[in-house]
Amino acid sequence: MRKRVFKIFAFLYIPVFILSLYLLLSQKEEKTRLLSEYQKKDTSIKRKYLEDQFYSFVNNTQYWSTLNYPINFAPLNEHSSFMSPYLEIIRGITDYDQFRFLDLEGNEFFRAERTRVNSVELRPLQNKIEHNYVKNGLALKPGQIYLSQISLNRENGKIEKPHKPVIRAVSPIYDRTGKKMGIVVINFKMKRILDYLKLRASDNNIFLIDNNQNIITSSKYQEDLPYEFATKNTSLKDIYTSTDNGIQLDTTYFKNNHIWTIQHINLRKTDSSSSTLSDDSLEVVTPTNWILAQEVSPSMLRASLLPIYEGLGLFNFFAIVLLASLAYALQKNRLQKELFYKELEEKNKLLTKNRDQLLENNLFITNMNHRLEIRNEQLSEFNYLVSHNLRAPVTSMAAVMEMINKEKEPKNLTMLLPKLGQVTKSIMNLTEDISEYVTILDNREIKISDVNIIDLIEEVKKDFTETLLDNDSFEVIIKSDAWQQVLFSKFYLRSVLHNLMSNAIKYRQKNVYSYILFETGYEDNKKVLSVSDNGIGLDLKKHGDNLFKLYKRFHRNISGKGMGLFLVKSQLEALDAKITINSKENVGTTFKIIF
Amino acid sequence: MDKKTNILLVDDDELYLYLMERTIKEMTHNIEINSFTDGEQAVEFVSICTKEKKDLPKVIFLDINMPFLDGWGFLAEFRKLKSKIRQQINIYIVSSSVRESDIKKAAEYEELTDYLIKPIDRKKLAGIFTRAYNGE
Predict the structure, then answer these.
(1) Which of A348, A492, A593, B132 is the most exposed place for a label (fewest CB within 10 A)?
(2) How far is A550 from chain B, CA to nearest CA, in Å?
């Protein structure tokens, strides 16, 4: 039962399970695709933002490069009045953290620093020739702008606290005559921009990295530019060992349950229409490339796929419960059906059995009926025998008695008296014969056994001297190829065979080789014993009806009581056998006993 | 009566024959009685009578159950000779059988005058003879 239920359940559930797996995979793929798309878009927006900021810095710095500065420009002294309106501009642009002019030797000749949001102060001048941005800035050609690495601001070689990420934009400056007189260096505050980059709508991890995959800013860390002050987790390589490939190109890909989006900040745009802030004539020089990277982490992916898992899990749970109960119900139904069919079959069997029994009973009754009919006939015969054959002598006796009573002459009396003796004798004979017949009718005591026909014929043969003497030409022939054994009363069969053999001897033709032939055979699946002789035979037309009747004799010259064939028939019929005769005068007679 | 008339008794019961003969003789001496104990002998007698153109018996008392040839057999043979017989012959079945089938069968034979059941008393015999000889 449990096994079959499970089988049905499995049969029903496996397709559902496969379907749900397919759904899971396709939904997962769809989800991943959506997340990738979303991440890509978000990255693009942020890249665009960063590019715009950078262009704004570049253009902003470029502005200072286009001014016509006085010859031997000294903004702190004689040209302070020239500088003062520009100082207001510097103060107004809040992204400016430091604003400096450096001469061709790397010496500052103007240095303004933002102290508060709305105030800028002039600070002591320094020599910055050792710094890369100065060296690179001095090497700039006209139309070139230098953007430095984004770094934490340092004062006197120490990182300023709180950390202040800045980017330095450098542009050459020229005096009125067009002579290059130094560079302008502007430190832009990056905090606001970096914070914006870190803003996220979802739990994606956002990284801004440089060429060497050093992390500039990341949504994972509070502090920017960790590589400047820490030793651990400062580079993307430290955190993810598997991001190495694909960093060179703009791409979005799914790998090891991470969704990565990599986009490069492009400051050398050829398509000018994409930004109103860009200027084709400008060339931005940078020591590095900036790369924006966004990641959907496995845990986040898991979290976003969780509803799908939950949904499908719930679906599968209900499917299992439903299908299991369905399978159980089906199996139960099937069992009930089987039981029903089994019962039906049993009933059918019983009916068949009953029918067989009925047929058997029917046959039994038919047989019984047949036997009763025979019996009835026999009883009728008996009745006739008694009424007719007994009636005659009794009537005669009454007549004789009457005559005796009337007779007055003693002489006549002596004639009448012997007649009484005659009547008595015939009544006695009749009584004997009837008693013999009654014994046959009353067949309850008959013993049925398996009789060997050959042995029985040989036994009967010994009853007749005619068969034993060699010189008397009467022969008994037996042909028993078909069968030798028959179920019958040995006593009756012996009597039957005795009578038939006796007749054959009695009614043989004189001076002719005579025989009696016993032959076994089958007719309609019944055993048949035919008994033939070549005797004188008789005219069946004349005597056919009377052949087997009592006290019928057909041959005047041969003694006989007329009882032999009557007994033969009675004895055979008592055990449901039949006898038929075929005979021709002077040719012979054939009896057929059908068992 | 000028000449003796004759009757035929056919029965295998010899005592019956004796009693019948005796009874008839007591009644009259004008009747010649021929008796046979079976049908075969009776048929032979009738056929000889026919052949030799002798007088046939006017009355035949015929038993049914007899050896060699029974009453029915006699009647069958008698039919064969009938064409040669011009005389009126009264044939009576005389049997101790009260069996329905025998009586029915007897009714089918138009040659038969009646079916009598043994014993036959004098009165009945007288009736039969009166009928047979007065009718002539």
Answers:
(1) A348
(2) 9
From A529's Cα to the closest Cα of chain B, the distance in A is 28
Hey, what are A341's tokens? 């069919």
Residue A551 forms contact with B (CB below 8 Å): yes
A532, A544 Cβ separation under 8 angstroms: no
Residue A540, chain B, CB below 8 Å: the answer is no
For residue A116, CA distances in Å to A93, A126, A161, A188, B9 come to 12, 21, 15, 14, 181
Check A554 against B97: CB less than 8 A apart. no
The pLDDT tens digits for A390-438 are 877 888 888 888 888 888 888 878 888 888 888 888 888 888 888 888 8
Contact present, B70 and B64 (Cβ < 8 Å): yes
Bridge partner residues of A284 (DSSP) = A145
User: Pairing relation of β-strands A108-116 and A96-103?
Assistant: antiparallel
Range of the domain at B112: 5-134
Decide if A213 is inside a domain. Answer: yes
Contacts of A400 in chain B (CB under 8 A): 15, 19
CA distance A450 to chain B (A): 38
Confidence of residue A336 (pLDDT cuts 50, 70, 90): very high
ipTM value of the model?
0.78
Is residue A177 located within the same domain as residue A214? no
| pLDDT tens, position by position, A142-187 | 888 999 999 998 888 888 888 899 999 999 999 888 889 999 999 9
> Which of B19, B21, B117, B121 best tests the A interface by mutation, with the highest count of A CBs <10 A?
B19
Residue with the bigger pLDDT between A550 and A305: it is: A305
Q: How many CB pairs under 8 A join A and B?
A: 61
Number of domains forming the structure of chain B: 1
Same-domain status, A104 and A18: no
